[in-house]
Design brief:
The protein is mainly alpha-helical and 462 residues long. The chain has 19 helices and six strands.
Length: 462
Amino acid sequence: MAQQMWAGRFAKTIDQAANDFNASIRVDCRMYRSDIVASIAHAGMLGAQGIIDPRDAERLQQGLADVLADLESGALQIDPQAEDIHMFVEQVLTERLGDVGKRLHTARSRNDQVATDLRLHLMEQIDEIDGAIGALAAQLVEQAERYADDIMTGYTHLQRAQPISVGHYFLAYVQMLLRDCDRLADCRRRTSVCPLGACALAGTTYPIDRQATARALGFAAVGANSIDCVSDRDFVIELAADVAMIMMHLSRLAEEVILWCSSEFGYMELDDAFATGSSIMPQKKNPDIAELVRGKTGRAYGNLMTLLSVMKGLPLAYNKDMQEDKESIFDSVDTVLACLRILTPMFAGAKLRTDVMAKAAEKGFINATDCADYLTKKGVPFRQAYKTSGQLVAYCIAHGKSLNELSLDEFRSADANFDEDIYRAIDLRACAASRISEGGGGVASVRSQIAQCKLALQARTE
């Protein structure tokens, strides 16, 4: 068992089972880079402030850089018996530098160290998630542009409702993803607050420069209250909530794929590289990737509830319960990144059956609203026009016809205001194109939305 840094107070070595239960190295080892980077900044500040000899500070910084290089090259392996990544790094440094290594923890506690490392790490993870969302959104914009003029059925209650363009449909998901990016940006801003210097909870008696450390680490601000610095995990919960929202959007998108790939819809065929078969039914081509995205959404929801439950009754300041934050948030981050990174190429390789979509749109009377709007524009009150259109639908159902198949006499038997131009008004392409309101499904509007989405995605990377 590795020597515990806090062992001076204790007469006995910690029980092996208790040590295993207490240790977090298995989970927090992924923060090794953030821990070392934060320690390098801390050592530099200690030297600059004259709290330790500047030459010792330089040796600490070089020693830490060497530890990082060895970890990344594989020359140094993380000890699974260490209590956590913070103690492991310090212990290796002390073994290499002797008493100089022991100076690193001056004016610092594991409480503010852990909070700092976690914030640094999650800021990087937020950037990764944002980039992955951008890639998926760009792919959906590409699909929207490719199918901007193709007609499909828009649904409410999963019932056929109105004709729309395929491009308009995809752009709805792009808007969801852009909102996700906005939420992540807000979360990152609140995460970019440096706790280092808060120490255990009350600050320190040393003349540290918290602003200098924060600047060196790229934080936008320092925490205003030392107690809050070490006891706050709002930023973790906020990210977990953002991830849960992203996963909800991805799950809805996955559900569309699952439905569209079914024989009943037949709107989409996945590339063979992103589908699986059955162990017993040779004809099957299953959308397992989309189903897994839908299923993994529950993990993100569960992680959010775990974090809320961990924090709900904790008194100030730090409590060991808070060690449970990392496993949940890391799992959420890993889950959403995996889902985003698999959906992007899946959509790139998918084939849309626009002919099937167009044929399906001919059924279900999805131009009935346009029929009512036609009468309204002739001066008929909308409610009367609505009733007339509904009566025509009932007539069509009884006679096995669509609205387009009715004769002009049949239209006029319902209302004398119908004329030859009704056929143009209820043509599905004309119906979709006539949605001229801002944000609507008309061709001009869809093209405008595509341009706006492209600009929004471009602005994110500038």
